[in-house]
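Box 3.1. Reading complex inputs
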Amino acid sequence: MSTVARFQIDHVRFLDPHGEALGPLPDFAHDPARLIPMYRAMYLTRSFDAKAIALQRTGKLGTFASALGQEAIGVGVASAMLPEDALFPSYREHAAQLVRGVRIEESLRYWGGDERGSDFADARHDFPNCVPIGTQVCHAAGAAYAFRLRSEARAAVCFLGDGGSSKGDFYEGLNFAAVWKAPLLVVLSNNQWAISVPRSAQSATATMAQKAIAAGVEGVQVDGNDLVAVHHVAREALAKARAGGGPTLIEAVTYRLGDHTTADDASRYRDPAVVQEQWSFEPLTRLRNHLVKLGAWGPEKEEALARECADTVNAAVEAYLSTPPPTTAAMFDHLFATLPAALAAQRDEALRFAPRTAGGQPGGDHG
Amino acid sequence: MAEINLVEAVNLALAHELARDEAVVLLGEDIGANGGVFRATAGLQQRFGAGRVVDTPLAETAIVGTAIGMAAMGLKPVAEIQFSGFLYPAIDHLVNHAARLRNRTRGRLACPLVVRTPCGGGIHAPEHHSESPEAMLAHTPGLRVVMPSSPARAYGLLLAAIRDPDPVMFLEPTRMYRLFRQEVVDDGEALPLDVCFTLRGGTDLTLVSWGAMLHETQAAADALAAEGISAEVIDVATLKPLDLPTILESVARTGRCVIVHEAARTAGLGAEIAASLAEEGLYSLLAPVQRVTGYDTVMPLSRLEYQYLPSVERIVAAARKTLEAS
């Protein structure tokens, strides 16, 4: 008998849950000018999240998927991306999207039932939210192939969840990118729950990161609630991808502090006491404590940030609520580059019978 | 001028577009060194390199899935699914992503993708190698579905499909790959999508078909002509969106219509055409519309496949029925 392969999975963490450094930190982690924008993005994500849920509860938004507790992953990864990179998010990655330049009012339009929410004014190359599970890994692998073929120093970054790792698309996309040595970063936000199915019922593997090994891809596990660790591994993975080193899988271990979506009630299937306990690991407090230790943060700055984020979110909500309703014609006009003649009569019919309330109210809640 | 068969015409069109537009890439199983199991891509990897003619791992989901990412990022991928019976793992990507990326982003992103796949029976192939999935695909808003029935139309329609800014399913009837040769000029002239082609004029009835079934349909028209019956033959070619005006105009003159397709009958495209004739052409009909189709059975293995495939006799019988009706 001989051993043909061995593997190990590193777990990366720099800050403990109280924000204490566990050892030497990467350079950027000493630099408030680098950290504060990321703290701000996490704070803004959480402010947006809370407002979106409130809007849904008051009938002004459709079903919404909260990112509560997972802010460090999207922010840490997206802050390591270049503008010309492309993001392939799941439906729970507004943290990453906000850093990429997606506007809060755009996100609200999307969740409010309006396709215009995915017509990002900035981040023009980023994919819209991906609702089918795991499929975006394949899209990102193909995008990465295009970048490599044209010798562009761009990378594709996709996000999925622990449930998504059970899909064939996840392995197939990773496998294709590995064979192609394509500049791809796959970020698996392991928040321990796929709606009601816990991590333990999702996979028998000790880590999600090791699923990369089967594709010949480097897999690394990171504390997903430690912004410093997430940002550090994402920077390394993206540098490797740009240098022709191929894809990386990052498993970011976190915890879904909220319900799956506003249509879900997680108390039906998980113990609130466990959720409460998980709050002591959440990412904002951790980074804030670190900033305080650096002498770069205090109550005044925190209050100012809270006010600023509230103002930003409120302005976005106003912009969202005052968005003119979508036109009936829009569902035909973007189906193809040019509307086929065969569809003209259906378009006319839709316009003729369009109710006076065409476009519906913002929200159009279904959950 | 060279006479070539349908699969050679596919090769010619692919080569033309690879040479013309550096954004065009081919990907699929065995398409590179091997030139494709039907030789559709023979010699192309040698000419254009392994970066643009890509032998992929064996996974249909990711062939189409990665092609979507390529398309959205500015390439013009032409993905080959080796047989349409193996297309089903990629349906999720076609229906949920390729067909709606433009609409979902209100035009910000698009998916100029072609998926080529051989379809249909009649070549004594193994199980799952003789499928006719066109109606499933045509039911998906946002997808174009095209099926050529001759070398010249394969060349011209494939050029059009590759140049189209939206996803096109290009179904190639395997039985036609080497059935006959035809002069094809490699002039880069695309044929129009979204239109039917009238292959022969006629006055007594209209035969509507597509793909390999046009072989039987044309033979049926010959047999009818021998009896003094003049049948018009229409090749639908683009199955979605459907060029109904051409069919309506023909039926307005002939008053009779037989629709022939190899795919199973129920909810097949014959039903769509017949329903459209009922809605918009009823008063020009002199007889009930007839359908000659594959049965609502599983496509049989090779020993029974010709019991399944519509025959010239079945088409002639249906034509007679329309003629006897009034």
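In summary: The radius of gyration of chain B is 19 Å.
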